[in-house]
Amino acid sequence: MGRIIQRSYWVLGATLTVLLAGAPPAQAHVKKIVVEKKVSPAFDGASFGAAGQYETLAGRAFGELDPADPHNSLITDIRLAPKNANGKVEYIASFYLVKPMDMSKASRLMWQDVPNRGGRITISPAQRNDGDIGLSSGWQGDNSGRTVPADDNDWVTVPIAKNADGSPVTGLVLGRIVNASGVDSRPMIVNANPVPYKPMTLDTTRATLTTHRAETMDGKITEGPAIASSDWAWAKCSATNPFPGTPDPTQICVKNGFDPKLLYQVVFTSQDAYVLGIGFAAFRDVASFFKYETKDDAGTPNPVAGNVAWVISRGQSQSGNFLRAMIHLGFTEDEKNRKVYDGSWPIIAGKRVTLNTRFALPDGAGKLYEAGPEGPQWWNDWPDPVRGLPAKGILDRCTASNSCPKIVEHFGAAEMWGLTLSPAFVGTSTEKDIPLPANVRRYYIPSTQHGGGQGGFNVNPPNAPMCPGPNFGVGMFAANPVPHTETVSALRYHFRNWVMKDIPMPASVYPTLANRNLVDPTKEAVGFPTIPGVPVHAPTGLINPVLDYDWGPEFNYLDGSGVRTKVPPTIKRAIKMKVPRVDADGNELGGVPVVLREAPLGTYLGWNVVAAGFNQGKLCNYAGGMIPFARTKAERDATGDPRLSLEERYKNHDGYIAAVRAAAAKAVAAGFLLQPDADKLIADAASSNVLSPLSSSR
């Protein structure tokens, strides 16, 4: 990690107030940009197609928001944020701009990428060859782990809410520790980063530490023993520094050590109420500045002024959930009522990020007691009778302001099984398909893990994956290799043309109730075969359902905003879910053609099973899996495997190459594979070990 840029919580307020207080009252926006590092030429001086050489500019944008402006007023706690002399709320956002050195060669398309947990993003060589501009800019202001400001990541610095009398805004925060053993203290990790809030006091009588012996997918808890306040401490401890250890608000030390059979859950009161919803406005305003402005208020030129005609926002997983929430809350229009985004691409993202709540945990990924699936997860207005909510949709606000972008979304099997995607397709009643609006295209990449696998054609399966999440466990099956890479390249090609030239995308392709490819998540309904080594009832019981939480009366259940006063929440119900049907091999139906899915070497799963530990036998969060085919009929007969062997399917190596060639032609014809990628896949199959006489069997 690069040099840490120190943040003192209201050094920010003091610094920016000095910087901006002298300015006359004006419409809030990005007031100043500072380029701190320029590399020109970048990428070792390489030249990219007609665009030539590129350069990179890393810096910070200093912005302010009018808390009374309707574009910003729905930000939770913005009225409790400190204000400058103009009555505005200030922030600092990092940015990383990637552009042709000669802007006359630019395509005029700018991709604004959403960093995932602070990770800075650089556009790919293919996009540089197209002359595109890349912008990675900060939005996550919880100042924890990889979102702590540094010179190699992207972040936003936001204020901490205070009551009118200057007293702290307080609230309850939950942290969890799983698969821990021994006397060493443990931090509280949300998904990849630590819990960003600290207790108001290290007095353990002011917090509760409880344990769970078991948890089910639908939220049923088997309680374990409570830990007395005298038997644990906010402290760092170890065998050489035993209980009560050294005081530390980020660690929990248990007097008798952690029991690996138990999950530990702490609830405490914090006063670090970051106004995290400002991240939406900061992300919007940085894009707006580079699209529309010629210079900042100090006269610093916009490095891409006059050369951005189109902006496409793009985010993957957590970052895609950010985009869905951003659109839902209306941050598609700036304070000058200008449409900011021409396109938006939420990738492998089926819910909305939890950002606009007090004491939000945006690092969460859908585990128990993590918010995100509240309110409409669908684009058009659609009834929500199960949760008793009115008919609303994600596009309501941008439709009212005429600022909706063209939208492409794509998903895979892991999002259906592990990341609560189903309501986006069929709502909470699961009785009808929800139609897509004209500005949305949806593509389902079947039988793939989260983000796709490593690709390639190999009879030796990958190693078993780690289940995503802190100490969640390891999968029972090999990782799923089916890639998204080539499909995404084709979608990017079509999306550019749709935005820049209004050339239509390929028609949406995804499983539906109408085509009978969406069914209940049971082995019988899915049609999953009985395969040796697979739990007999799988995948029954392996779906991660949407849990309808009661967060208390101060929470906005439509917007996923406001204040959660019940922590942990009670669970009102588990929402019924649907998943894709599979063929006789156990591979999903109803999606776009993918070569490795069409010429399979095994059963490719959007789910996996935890092999050991506290979560043993449960869904391996959102990891996928693979169960390879036997090489010969004799091998499969010996184990009772109902799936045809590789030799029965393809006969020999040349037969497999022919199958790959046919699958590639099918995908190219449908628009989901570019011909250069098809040629490479065929060459890769030819050089593979699939039924090769020179390769050894598994």
Can you describe this structure?
This protein is 18% helix and 21% strand. The chain is α+β, with helices and mostly antiparallel strands and 698 residues long. Strands 1, 2, 3, 4, 5, 6, 7, 15, 16, 19 and 20 form an 11-stranded mixed sheet that branches. Strands 8-14-10-11 form a 4-stranded antiparallel sheet, with no helix packed on it. Helix 2 links the parallel strand 5 and strand 6 (133-137). Helix 13 (653-670) packs antiparallel against helix 14 (675-686). The longest helix is centred in the C-terminal third of the chain and has 18 residues, at 653-670. It is globular and about 80 Å long.
Helix count from the secondary structure assignment? 14
Name the helicity range.
10-25%
What is the number of strand segments? 28
- Based on secondary structure, the structural category is alpha+beta
Q: Cα-atom Rg, whole angstroms?
A: 26 Å
**pLDDT averaged residue by residue:** 95
Distance between the termini: 40 Å
Shape: globular
Unreliable segments of 5+ consecutive residues: 1-26
Main beta sheet: 11 strands, mixed
Instruction: Provide the β-strand percentage band.
Output: 15-25%
